[in-house]
Design brief:
The protein has 5 helices and 12 strands. It is an alpha+beta fold. The radius of gyration is 53 Å and the shape is elongated.
Length: 361
Amino acid sequence: MRDTKESRLLLVLLIAIAFALITVDIRGGQNSPVDGARQAAAAVFGPIENGVSSAVDPVGNAVSAIRDSGERHDRLARLEKENAALKAKLGSDDRNRSRLNQLDKMLKIAGEGQYGIKGAQVIAIGAAQGFSWTITIDVGAGDGIKRDMTVLNGDGLVGRVTTVGPDTATVLLASDPDFTVGTRLEGSDELGFASGQGDRPLRVELLNGKAEVKKGDRLVTFGSQADRPFVPGVPVGVVSRVDPSGGGLTRTLSVTPYVGFTKLDIVGVVVQAPKKDPRDQVLPAKPKPTPTPTVTVTVTPSANGAGTGDRRQNNGGDQQQNDSTGRQQNDSTGRQQDGSTDQPQNGGTDQPQTDTTDQQQ
């Protein structure tokens, strides 16, 4: 349609008519004169609107779904990130708690033995120094560490320092086949030498071949001259097997070490030896034996059982009672029935019954 004077005039006229109808409709309220026209228009254009709406709604829903999907994806990514952060924090907290527990146990041993220690963390294991049973710790000469110092943790003897660098040191573990330490048996003070056997228990040779030793006995370090490489009193392990002496000069023991050499983390290097041998006081407290419950069974005889027992116990007495009672009953019965008794009721009454019957006849 061209933009002419007539078209502009027609547009203004239509707008004026529309405003007039709106004004009339508003003033008429429910009785509006254009209500019929509105209903007719609704009847005509309603189906068209529904069709258009049905055609447009899937597109709108799809657009909303895409928009919501993006929001959900962002929210999911955010939640996953928060979850990962919480897991990392939880894992860190668990590890920190484990380290605090190890440190607490180690400080307890150091306090009981009066050892001056330098705490350290294991940063490498044997493969870095070959295939021997060794670890690397994160303290060295700058921390006052020297060769042939005792290394322990919260459980007991770990090993001894063999190599020292500026900031690190190498520790030979007590499980290494080249490791040897003097030991003393708890209580009896029997001396021996413990040697590593890799992942097997320690092998201990007691100097006294006739020493009294049993499974469960415990050993500590005997100590070295000038406390190098070993200070006294450090827990070593528990006797797990005693080999027969066989009349030899020494006696061989298998000892399960207190320390788990495959799970070392926090250790301590003894930089100051105790002034006095702590002997056995660093050993952990012995576990209290678990009391064995005593079961007392009380047999309550039943009615049938009691009856049976009565019959068994009174069997002999019944025989005697039947014999005497039978005589009395048969004698009196025979007299009352005038000899009508044909069979004696008890073997013991045959003679009295016969005599009575004959006399009556």
